[in-house]
Amino acid sequence: MSDLYEEVILDHYKRPRNAGKLAIPECNHAEGANPLCGDNVTIYVTVRDDKIEDVRFEGGGCAIATASASLMTESIKGKPLAEAKRMFEEFHAMVTGKEEEAERAGLGKLTVFSNICHYPARVKCATLAWHTLDAALTRPGGKVSTE
Ligand code: ZN
Predict the structure, then answer these.
(1) Would you give per-residue pLDDT tens digits along the chain (147 residues)?
(2) Distance, CA 79 to ligand 1 centroid (Å)?
(3) Rounded to the nearest 10 degrees, how much is the dihedral formed by the CA atoms of 47, 106, 97, 14?
(4) Do 52 and 45 form a contact (C-beta atoms < 8 A)?
(5) How far is the CA of 27 from the centre of ligand 1 (A)?
(6) Are strands 51-60 and 28-34 parallel, antiparallel or unpaired?
(7) What's the Rg (C-alpha) of the chain?
(8) pTM
(9) Distance from C-alpha of 83 to C-alpha of 96, rounded to nearest angstrom
């Protein structure tokens, strides 16, 4: 990974943004686990007028999983649900190496994970928070596992 990418990921790992929880039942939440690496993350999200009003996370794991949760919450807060869903799809395509450089325009800082596609074992670390967010929005209270 390039130094710049590594620096951003380590910064979010050491000082996670939006760490914490939101009051249940006012929010939707879900738990996600990546047993291969030992990552565990709980996502709390509130939606108002079809927008992500607030989003927090608890847990984490390795640097990639924790930084991904931190950067995800930062990126989707205040965004319309449809846009957050599109970002998940683009992010997933990027980290699994299915997308061309030019199509990453909407991802902003999330492109720090673009090199993950060269490390297949870490893809689940990078996508855990996103899968868990998806579960919190579509199957609140549920649990997801990458296995
Ligand atoms: Zn991990």
Answers:
(1) 567 788 999 999 999 999 999 987 789 999 999 999 999 999 999 999 999 999 999 999 999 999 999 999 999 999 999 999 999 999 999 999 986 655 666 799 999 998 898 888 899 999 999 999 999 999 878 889 988
(2) 26
(3) -70
(4) yes
(5) 26
(6) unpaired
(7) 14
(8) 0.93
(9) 20
